[in-house]
Design goal:
The structure holds 2 protein chains of 2 kinds. By secondary structure, chain A is an alpha/beta fold. Chain A folds into 3 domains: 23-134, Orthogonal Bundle (Fumarate Reductase Iron-sulfur Protein, Chain B, domain 2); 149-245 and 404-471, FAD/NAD(P)-binding domain; 246-398, FAD/NAD(P)-binding domain. Chain A is 33% helix and 16% strand. Chain A has 17 helices and 16 strands. In chain A, strands 3-2-1-4-16 form a 5-stranded parallel sheet. In chain A, helix 13 (298-309) links the parallel strand 7 (290-294) and strand 8. In chain A, helix 4 (79-87) packs across helix 7 (121-135) and helix 5 (93-99) packs antiparallel against helix 7. Chain A starts with 22 loop residues before the first helix and ends in a 5-residue tail after the last helix. Chain B is an alpha/beta fold. Among the domains of chain B are: 2-89, Translation factors (Elongation Factor Tu (Ef-tu), domain 3, Beta Barrel); 93-204, Rossmann fold, CATH 3.40.50. Chain B has 9 helices and 17 strands. In chain B, the strands form 4 sheets. In chain B, strands 12-11-10-9-13-14-17 form a 7-stranded mixed sheet, with helices on both faces. In chain B, strands 5-6-2-1-7 form a 5-stranded antiparallel sheet. The two termini of chain B are 14 Å apart. The chains are: A alpha/beta, B alpha/beta. The structure holds flavin-adenine dinucleotide (FAD) (2 copies), iron/sulfur cluster (SF4) (2 copies) and FE2/S2 (inorganic) cluster. Chain A: It is an enzyme of class 1 (oxidoreductase). Chain A: Residues 1-27 are annotated as: Disordered. Chain A: Residues 149-457 form the FAD/NAD(P)-binding domain. Chain A: Its EC number is 1.4.1.13.
Amino acid sequence: MTGEKQPKKTIITKKNPMPAQDPQRRSKNFEEVALGYPEDTVIAEAKRCLDCKNAPCRQGCPVDVDIPAFIRLAAEGDFGGAIQKIKETNAMPAICGRVCPQESQCEKFCTLGKKHEPVAIGRIERYCADWELARGTFPQRVAPPTGRKVAVVGSGPAGLTCAADLAKAGHRVTVFEALHVAGGVLMYGIPEFRLPKRVVHAEVENLKKLGVGIEVNAVVGKFATVDELLNGGGFDAVFIGTGAGLPYFMKIPGENACGVYSANEFLTRTNLMKAYRFPGSDTPIRVGRKVAVLGGGNVAMDSARTALRLGTEESWIVYRRSVHELPARREEVEHAVEEGVKFAFLTSPTRIIHDDNYWVTGMECLRYELGEPDASGRRSPVPIPGTEFVMDVDTVVVAIGQGPNPLVPRTTSGLEVNRKGNIVADPATGATSKPGVYAGGDIVTGAATVILAMGAGRAAAKAMHSYLTQKGPVQ
Amino acid sequence: MYRIVNKEVLAPDISLIEIKAPLVAGKAKAGQFVILRLWEGGERIPLTIADFDRERGTITCVFQEVGKTTRQLGTLEAGDKLKDFAGPLGLPSRIQNFGSVVCIGGGVGVAPVYPIARALKDAGNEVTGIVGARNRELLFWEDRMRAACNRLLVATDDGSYGLHGFVTDLLREVIGEKKELDLCIAIGPLPMMRAVSSLTREYGLKTVVSLNSIMVDGTGMCGCCRVTVGGETKFTCVDGPEFDGHLVDFEEMARRSVIYKPMEQLALELYLGETGHRCSCVRGGEK
Ligand SMILES: Cc1cc2nc3c(=O)[nH]c(=O)nc-3n(C[C@H](O)[C@H](O)[C@H](O)COP(=O)(O)OP(=O)(O)OC[C@H]3O[C@@H](n4cnc5c(N)ncnc54)[C@H](O)[C@@H]3O)c2cc1C
Ligand SMILES: Cc1cc2nc3c(=O)[nH]c(=O)nc-3n(C[C@H](O)[C@H](O)[C@H](O)COP(=O)(O)OP(=O)(O)OC[C@H]3O[C@@H](n4cnc5c(N)ncnc54)[C@H](O)[C@@H]3O)c2cc1C
Ligand code: SF4
Ligand code: SF4
Ligand code: FES
């Protein structure tokens, strides 16, 4: 369908490899794993792009970055031009370039990828964004003040994007964040070695430059409800981007033993509270000799790799399907393997065993096989009776998913939620059942991706802007 | 930054701080708590709201110096600042006219039980207060409690003041003299809440305890604070901190509360070594 009409160009079949810290060394430190392309490599990689007329790559990008255009500029060495092109639709490319699951998004549809390796779109995007960050971001245009006030609840990628867009449109925006720093999962969940926190800080600082007020330590539903923000609080509209922060557990015996963590706790202690610096920081973490991480997504990979860095001898991913079904980004799985993370596929725990002091001493598991495809099209795991065995572990990290935190939905009148507790919102506008209240990101979709959350924040900002404009001038 | 407007040493290693935090004070209710942090690398620690003043916009907490963070907090004075302060967290106490209630505070637990006793009395209950401490020196807020209760009974472990014994001894007497008790609220060290709960279970007296499990975020995000109550897992920070004392798995709770003991000891030793003793190196909340 594509390809045919392209001007003749020598095809370079392979992606330029990403320079990375040596696996032996990096599995002991928290510094960034992927080091970023040098300038000559990024230009060489950008030159691989065929500049396809119909740009199939774009349909894979949830925010429709004009991929061929920015890559063309990068190929010419015009990184300033490239970053401006990217930022037309993507507010935080330094983050997306690092954490987007490109293999299932933009790069999945790349023409080159049909027969060869796709263009490393994410890596080029990251280069351009880092180039800008190193020079101090370009000042952005802000519309004259409208006099309207907007509250954004939650400072994850959804909230930050929504706040940035509304501020640029001239509204006065205040972000309320429950924790003591802004950034959501980008700060407390995704580890430093994948997404350095200075990158997130830089984005938050940018937001402040746009005039956005950021109130940390502000738990909405506690110090004020959404209704109170709207009535009496002086806000004309509210965006809810509170994420999927509620950790799920397996509900198996022994799960409250000492040494069992939710991935959220394990990662929050490490990333947000900097437990890896203990006693240089005050929050402790305890990782034993052998760690089992339950689950197969990004959160599980992050936990298993974090455990190694905290000094455990063996770090296992315990997953009930096979290697082919692992939902984590491929690059993260590869990195985990290189660093020495071990995998127990087709395995799931039935109970956690502990000693008299409640410390974990082992985990009883069952072997599984793959049966018929289920509703999602994936072959469902079926336990094989009589295959119980005990894994010798002393720490267990449960990374089987997160649900919506009920605090805001429960304290907001007239806000419709679905069976799972997610806020019901129009995917195109973020509008909820409550007038003036919009929502987006994981609180609406369930745990998804950074770029989808940003996309939702942006769509909501657009709809909120017209809602506020329709309200007419402020009296 | 959140300014300390008042500080009082109530007893050896027990201090009161009053913090300016109008948004928290505007909503605070008896039974809720706050989470605070002292410096950039600091731990988030929960403290119960011992009092609040909506007009002044302040929250009062009473804390015992047990480890590094609380010792460090103990070095701060009026005018110093806390880096972070979030709240009011957790569910408020259920306040209604139950009839006749006993409010028990053990050790530093006297502080959090005080606003609950006061609110219960205001709601029309007949409130019997019981407070206990290791010795007379460690007892504080006897005056406040006396004002908040219809009557107050006191015990000390060493007999230096009030009854020579435990709060449970006083509770047994109260139960003995009055058959029609409707509710018991007990806040204090884990062993005390456990002992009270097992005593009241014998008499079928409904008992509420306030659990102080280890926490990180305090908003239901990490699951660190989970406890087993009636066979179900609950998160203390959002489902509590108050639970039915007859249903709490105290054994599990006790084990979970010492998970980091060796590390906490190390942190305290390093801190005391580094500072000689109480110095003011973190004054103002920054290092
Ligand atoms: C460990 C981990 C690794 C991941 N890896 C990737 C990856 O590689 N690539 C990718 O694309 N996605 C990844 N994800 C998913 C991605 O991070 C999320 O989809 C995304 O962050 C969702 O953004 P959000 O803005 O909806 O919410 P969040 O990022 O969850 O932010 C919500 C914020 O709201 C705050 N909040 C909650 N309740 C309140 C309240 N009542 N008042 C005030 N504030 C409140 C929270 O404290 C939080 O800061 C990962 C997730 C995790 C946990
Ligand atoms: C809801 C709640 C309300 C509380 N209210 C009060 C109060 O009003 N007054 C008071 O003196 N204390 C209160 N505590 C206990 C107080 O939080 C701890 O004493 C404090 O965290 C100890 O920190 P540290 O660094 O000084 O001591 P550490 O040496 O770190 O720990 C000493 C002990 O405190 C407990 N603890 C440690 N870290 C935490 C943590 N992050 N969260 C909770 N407990 C921890 C552990 O059981 C530990 O064994 C409350 C705890 C909770 C959960
Ligand atoms: S935002 Fe993500 S999906 Fe879109 S082009 Fe960039 S890396 Fe690809
Ligand atoms: S990135 Fe791939 S699909 Fe997109 S224009 Fe370049 S070669 Fe074509
Ligand atoms: S402290 Fe994290 S869930 Fe309660």
